[in-house]
Description:
Number of helices: 22
Amino acid sequence: xxxxxxxxxxxxxxxxxxxxxxxxxxxxVDVALDGMLHAKLLRSxxxxxxVLAVDSSEAETLPGVRAVxxxxxxxxxxxTWFNLRSEKETKKLFLRDDxxxxxxxxxxxxxxxxxxxxxxxxxxxxVEYEVLEPVFDPLEAMERxxxxxxxxxxxxFHIFKEYGDLEAGFAQADVIVQNAYxxxxxxxxxxxxxxxxxxxxxxxxxxxxxxxxxxxxxVMMYVSLALGIPMSKVRVxxxxxxxxxxxxxxxxxxxxxxxxxxxTRVDRPVRLAFTREEDFAATESRHPFHxxxxxxxxxxxxxxxxxxxxxxxxxxxxxxxVSVLADALGTGVGIYRIPAYTLEGTxxxxxxxxxxxxxxxxxxxMNFAQESQLDELAERLGIDPVELRLKNYRGTGEMDPVFNxxxxxxxxxxxxxxxxxxxxxxxxxxxxxxxAFSAQATTPGSELPAxxxxxxxxxxxxxxxxxxxxxxxxxxxxxxxxAAHQHGTGxxxxxxxxxxxxxxxxxxxxxxxxxxxADDGQGNRTVLAQICAEVLGVGVDRICxxxxxxxxxxxxxxxxxxxxxxxxxxxxxxxxxxxxTKVLALAAEYLEMDGPDRLxxxxxxxxxSSDPTRGVHLSVLMRHFQVGDFSxxxxxxxxxxxxxxxxxxxxGATFAEVEVDTETGQVRVLNMAGAFDVGRAVNPMHCEGQxxxxxxxxxxxxxxxxxxxxxxxxxxxNFTDYKILRATxxxxxxxxxxxxxxxxxxxxxxxxxxxxxxxxxxxIANAVYNAVGVRMRELxxxxxxxxxxxxxxxxxxxxxxxxxxxxxx
Length: 809
C-alpha cells in the first residue's frame, strides 16, 4: 500500500443500493418457507401477576391448531452476552417462572396453520391469574419492600464511584448549580417492526433461524444454551433489516427463543411476528433516567466538582441495564477534566415494559443533564458556552479515569469551533441577562465580579419579518443552543467484543469477504468492502461480502456500540493484509523475482514499483496458481480474529437554532449543525447520512418521542399516537466531519453512528432557554411544559431576570 488511498475516503455507492431501490431486498417479513406455520402470543392484561392455571382445551381442538405452549416452558434471557464469559455467569442469563411483570408480557404461544386461526385460538384460552400489587414509579419501587417484582427485590443493580475529593472540589467553586432532570421512554420506532423470526428444525437436529437480530452469533449462543442444542447445529441467517437503533441488540423479548422452541415442538417451520402495537408495547425501549446533579466551577470557568445521582427505570426485566449505567458513567466522567466527581447509580425494576439498548446507550440521558448544567454555569459565569467546553474537555494524552487509559485521537476542539462556524454561533448566540443570579446559590464569599455579568438582550426588531436570534415576531422567539459529548467505539472494556474476517481470492482475481457484520441500513458492509478493496488494490466492485449467516461467517460481536467500522474494520484490514502478503509472495515467484519487497497492487495489477511495466494481473496470477499449475492448486485466504486494541472515544458537538411560540408553547427546530470526530471518514457520504439521521432522531427525543404509560399500559403504541418527525418537521442540517486520525483504527477510522444523536436534546433545551428564558429539565419538551414554565416564571416576576436560569434549591 502506498500513496493516498484510492477507495477509502471516497463516497462509493452502497453495495446493497440496487437491491433496496428495486425492491429485490428480502426483509424478515418477506421470508416464507414451505409448510410454514404461524405463531401468536397471548399477553398478560395485568402489570403484575402470577399465572396460576391455563385452560387451553377448547383452543387445542380448534381445526388448524398445532400446539399451545406455556411461556414458562421457555427460558427468558435476562442478561447480556457479558454473562457468556463463564459457566457461573451463564446461570444468571436465563429466567423461567410463571410470573408476568408488565402488561403485554408473554403468557403462552399458539401455533396454527395461519395467523387468523392462531388469533382465534387465543380467544378460546382461559387464564387464571393471581393479581399482585404493581409499582410503576422507580423512586417508589426502591422503597416498597413489600412488593417484590423479582425475588431479590426491586433494585437490580447499584453502583457508587468516586474520583477525587468532592468536598474539597466544591470548596474551590465560585459558582454551583444544582438541579434535577428526567428523561422519557423513547422507543426505537423502526419502520420494520422488531418482532419477526422464522425457525425450522430438521430431522437431523439442526435448528435454522431467520432472525433480524443485530447480534446473530449471540442469538446462536443463547438459543444453544437455552434449548440444549449444540452451537454447531444452530444457524442464524439474517435477512435485510429495516432499522434497528439497538432494538435488536440481543434476543427480542418473547421472540427468537420462543420461535425456536416452537419449531422443535411441531417439526415444521414456524413464523412468529409482532404487530406494530406489540412492537411498541412489549419490546425494549430507552431507559428513563431521573438525575440529580450538582456542578461547581471557578470564576475563570474551570470545572472543579460534579456530583450525579441516577435512578434508572429498567421496567419489568433487566437485560442491558448494568452496561447502560456503566456507559453513562464512562461518558459522563470521561469527557471533562473534573478533578472531583462522584456518581451513584441505581437500576430499579418497575411493572412497565422492559428497557434495553438504544442508540447512545445511556449517554443521551446523562448528556441532557450534564450539558444543561454546563449551559447554566456558562451563563452564570458570563462565558460563551463553546468557550467553557474548550477550557475543560479532556484531550489527547490525558488520562481517562474510568478506563484508566490515555485519550488517543481527540478532535473535540475542531468539533466545537467548526460546529460553531457552521451555525454562525458568534452572530446568533446572544446571552440572556444575568440579574437573577443574585438569587442563585454560590459558595459564600465567592461573589462574581461585575465583569462577568452577561450583557442585556437587545430590543425587539422593529421589522416584523426579522427572524434573527434575539429578536421577536409577535409571540415567536428565537434562540440557539449547543452541547458537546463523547461516546465510545465498541465495548472492549465492558463486554466480549470479538471481530473476525476471512478474505478469499478467486481464480479470476475477484474477492470474497466473509463477515457476520449485521447491516441495519447504515452501510457498514460497504465500508468493510472499501477497506478490503483498498488493501488488495482492487475496486469495490470486485469484492463480494457474505450474508450475515453464522453457518458460514466467522465470529462477530454484532452491530452495536458504533463498532463495525472500527472493530470489524480492523479484522478486515488484518485479513486482507494477510491475503495481500500471500498474493505478493506468489507474484514474486511468478515473475521470478528475489522477493516481494518491490511489488505493489494497483487497480488489480501486481507490478514492480521500480518498473511499472513489469507485472501480472491478479486474474492471470490467481488462475495460474489455482487451476493452471496442476501441482499446486493454491487457494489464497487471509484470516483474522480478535479484539481491538482500544475503545477510542468519538467526540462531537451539536448546535441548534429554534423558534418558540410563547402563546402556544410550540417549538420548531430550524437549523442544526453537528460536528463529529470520526477519526477518518472511510465513506464520507455514509457519515453525513448518519449525522443527518442521528440529529433528526435527537429532535424527536427532545420534543415529541415518549411512550405514554398509565397504570402500566402504553397509551400510544402506534405511529398515529407516538409522534416521530415527518420529513416536513426535520430541520435544516449541516453535517461537519472532523478527522483526527485514530492510530488503532483501520486507516485512522473510529465509530460514529450512536454519537450523532447524543447531544441533540441538550442543545435544543439550551436553545429553548436562550429563546424564552425558561429551563426545561424534563423530556419530552412539550408545549404544555413550556407554557407551564412560562406561567410559573411570570408568577415569580415575569422578566428575563427572574427566568434566566431557575433557582437552585
